[in-house]
Every structure is written in C-alpha cells, then in structure tokens.
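This part of the workshop introduces the protein records we will be handling. The question running through the whole workshop is how a given chain folds. To make this concrete, we reproduce a full record directly below:
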Amino acid sequence: MKFTPWNYALNLLSRREYSIYELQQKVTLKFPDLDSDEQIELVQRLKVSGLACDERFSEMWARTRYSQGKGPIRIRQELKQKGISETQIETALEQESFDWYQLALTTKRKKFNQPAQDHKEKAKIYRFLSYRGFNSEQIQYAMDCD
C-alpha cells in the first residue's frame, strides 16, 4: 500500500501521540521530496482537525514520565528535544498532581531500600536521582527522609 503524507501521519498518530516537530521529522524522512509548503499545509490540517496538539502531547508525556519516576529536569530536556515550546513545557510540568519531592523519595526508596551508610553510597544515590532528573533540593529531601 502506498501512503500519502496525510495517511502516513494518521498511521503514526493511531499508535501514539507525537509532537508536531516529531511528525514533521518522520514525514520528511518518509517523503523527502515533500516541499515546505506541503509540510506546512499538512501540519495545519493536523492541528485544525485536532489530531496533533503539542499541548496535549506535552501533558501526556509529562504524566507518563512522572509515573516512570523521572524528574522535572529530565522531562523538560526530553520535551525540548521533541520541539515543545518553553511555555507548554512549564504548563505540563506544573500539573497539580505532581509532587516532585515525594517522587524523588519514592524513586530513591524503590532503587535503594535502605538508608545510605557512608559517603560512597550517598554519592551513588545522588548521582542516580540526578540522572533521573531531580534537582538538588528534591534530592536532598529524599536523602534526609531516611
């Protein structure tokens, strides 16, 4: 079956949400001869029909990554890579249900089931939580609660 750019975009969106930037990248790779006017028309058509929405995507992405134990720094970085604007990132990260301090503590307890005994273990926990995307205040809260 030969896909048109529209059908290809719909096929992608039927599987999961994508940001507008991601859709543009995927369609460009699949259809390299598609000119910029056709890309703009495709994106506008997806937006108007409500099939692609960066706000909805960013909120969904933030909720999913939060449930995986990822912190705000990591989520912010991932959303930037997916072409989401700074204001939409802020909106997505400020959802009322997000308690970053509690998430840092829960994530720490899930990986390390006992308190750190020495500086080497504390450094290991700090690196782990930092890699997960938590800031120093959130990490310190998680370290102090044991």
User: Anything to note?
Assistant: The chain has three domains: 5-48, 54-93, 100-144. The domain at 54-93 is CATH 1.10.10 (Arc Repressor Mutant, subunit A).
